[in-house]
Protein 1
Amino acid sequence: MPQYKRITGMPDVLFDDQPYWRFILSKIQETADLFGYRRLDIPLLEQANLFVRGVGEGTDIVEKEMYIFEDRDGDQLALRPEFTAGIMRAYIENGMHTLPTPLRVWTTGPLFRHERSQAGRYRQHTQFDIEVIGEIDPVVDVEVINVAWYLFASLGLSGLRLYINSTGCPVCKPAYVQKLVDHFSPFTDKLPPDDQMRLRKNPLRILDSKEEVTQPLLKHAPHITDHLCPECNEHFAKLKHYLDTIDRPYTVDYRIVRGLDYYTKTVFEIKADGLGSQNTICGGGRYDRLVEELGGPPTPSIGFGSGIERYVLAMRHLGIEPPAEPLPRVTVSYLGEVAKLEAIKVIDTLHQANIGAQLTPGDRSLKAQLKAANRLNVAFALILGEDEVKLNKVTVRDMSNSRQTTVVLDKIVDWLKERL
């Protein structure tokens, strides 16, 4: 028989990691509730052209990373590589522009990108995503940043650092892009192939280059914040002023452009300790023209995406222990068929009383059943034999000291609740 293995970059989340995921997802829900965001879920599959149109043809996602296939109806589909384009499609298709604005939504789930796997970054990864739809006021930009900041603080992450920039708008961005092209064009033949492609198809992306050869040229590249139109300049000035008002520290990083074409004005990243050189834990920004680009009405919006696997990595590195999983505190053991039938009734009674309990199946010896209970680290093991069934009683073993007592079956729920 062939031995099947998981697909590269698509990890299994095993038992040891599950407490982290439970804790993180609970904190995500608490944070979303605190800020008044509502959950919206979208399909894993979308029309491939949605991302080509929304994300942009010159992006790494579209050029290299999307999982695209033709289904049996001949349609070109893609596993979602990011959330925003799909959420905007849902916003338009479901007539959500009629809802009160700004519309605050959040979601979480798997995304798929065929990229090089590295620590905390996989081809299938799970993101927490926030979107605020229908508001241009930069005070909303600060709110979105704060959602991420509050979440990471609640998880115990340390060394949080906020980096911001403005990526302009269609009024001022084209002139800046031309200045960028003019700056790099004399050195085109020295650029690596990927950066040559970026310069040709999406010049802003060259600012995000990690290529060693390109770094010296980036030091002297023009800054977009020196070439903003009055509207974008005012928006960026207000963003900084509002961040100063709440004493949220930040650094203006002129190289932040983010990897997607739809961004306008505000872009930001948050970095955290515990992630090594790949220390960006959150990135997002404003996309005021995306809804219109996808066929909806003009709708300013802002959001971010953040990978949950990276939260786990950072928490482990920093030694942050999540709460233990709420495993069952009681087992029910039995000897003989008559006792087994009674054990089935008892376990059902315990579950209905909301007492975490497990039946030890398989007709094993009592010694084996108690050994299994010990491995589960339960507080009490209930033992039923024919004598207990006849007397309508159950023997209870305290697993911490092996002491045993007898309790009337009808009283076992109350007895356990007093002690658990």
Protein 2
Amino acid sequence: MTSAPPRLVVSVPAGHLADDLQPLPEGVELIEWEMDAPAPRDHIDIVVPPYMSASVILPRLEGVGTRLVQGQSIGYEGIAEHLPAGHTFANAASVHETSTAELAVTLALAAQRSLPRFVRAQDAHRWEQDFSPSLADRRIMLLGYGGVGTAIAARLAGFEADVVPVASRARVEDGIPVHGVDELPELLGTTEILIASLPGGEATRHIIDDSVLSALPDGALVVNVGRGTLIDTDALVDHLRRGRLRAALDVMEPEPLPEDHPLWSLPGALIVPHVGGASSAMQPRITRLVRRQIDRMLAGEPR
């Protein structure tokens, strides 16, 4: 007697995700596929590619039938160029917002309270006290007010700062006035900290250019947890080199940052290597997301 074929075939990278998804509903077959070899099946209902490798692995879906490609990253940029036609792609909304918002606030606090300088003093065994700028009473612009931007705003709520959300269009969201990006020229002159969390793509490429950087007051801090392409790197390097601005960056252009790039050693620059979503919060959230997609597909609901 032969067993009934599975109702749903799901592929995930080898590792924790395969274990964490257990137990699976009846009729669901889980296979591990790193996408570094030919597909183990001609048709896989849900494919979860490895994290942070879309440009290399998505072309390998050519000739494979799927119902959903469930990414593990928050963005969409680069997907259209690399995903073969005929596939439906979903980003990992709900997975990275918490960790990315945490890092945005961490970067702002670390830069404001001079933590890089104090760590260097610790390495040299120097007791080096000084006053530092606070988050309290600062005017903080959130350039981007989607999932990450609103999560950053929620975490800044207790810091007694003046938070100014800016999005693609002006609106009132949950009782909070949100400015449109067209209002940037009148807002930048009083912005002491600019935190960018916009997605990448042509629409936002170099939205923080020399004109935006020049409009910020002397000593302002630029934090980027969105995509490196949001900032004109050459313009930022110029402002940092002159000591006019400071920067705390999780993402940058180019990436990875070359060993000889000036951003590594410029005064006022704090660099971390694109780790906004890389925390212990990611694994349980991606597991819950994939499980929801499985349940929806089994129930015939929209993905």
Protein 3
Amino acid sequence: MAQISMQLVKELRDRTQAGLNDCKSALTEAEGDMDKAVEIILKKGLAKSAKRAGAVAAEGVVTTRVAADQKSAVVVEVNIQTDFAARNEDFLAFVDKVSEAAEKAKTGADLLSEPMPGGTGTVEDNRAALVGRLGENITVRRWERLSVDGPGLVASYVHMGGKIGVLLAVRADNDAVAQKASSVIETTAMQIAAMAPPYLKSADVPEAAKKAQAEIFAAQLAEEGKIPEEKRPQVIEGKVQKWVKEVCLLDQPSVVEPKLTVQDQLAAAAKEAGGSLEIVGFVRFERGEGIEVPQGADFAAEVAAMAKG
């Protein structure tokens, strides 16, 4: 019989939210195989489903869908409570249908009220039914569309199987130029995923954000006390200028060619393609960002209680 460590028990508890005793029993039955233990928990219906509607869903998938003509695309985030449920075939099929509904919907529409593609009822009807089958809360959290009018294209990039999704809209002199530069456009989408720039260019950075950052730098310099007070304004200004470049996509060093900025890389690609390229917008969704996940009961206390029991 395999030795079942409390670390394994904790991992299974974190993944399924089942009780410690149930997790230990499932792991013992599965001889320490985590995936088999998860299946046992699910088959026995031990994964917690109480208060599903109010349960925090921070796992799930970010997915994208690009139109056939590459003139528009949508990005959608659908959340569920646990990572193993996020890999469930029924859940993934639901996500695919939700992204299809987003593609067909008007910009800004409530996806839950949209008809379910290839099925019956609304997206909400099918979401509620899937919650009942899987025993976990599911939320269609957000979606957005990007499009380009005239020549150009919208590219997408999905990182780590749905952890991050990016849309990038680029205008060009003509579609041939956009297609010739498509590899650099895709690289730029990857840059957005990796570096998470909040702004496109320096002109987009609000003065309030610059002021707040200047106050942070001022507090740091005062704490260090290495630079005379009369010289700090000049140092702070330099630091703010450097910070602006770091948070603006076009000014960031390329993740592929660090000696070039993203703007330099796009300019070189445009020249080679025989035209010009202009980024008109981008969207970056990271799964679960901004969702506060409440911490469960103290694991050590649960183990002590289980031992006493």
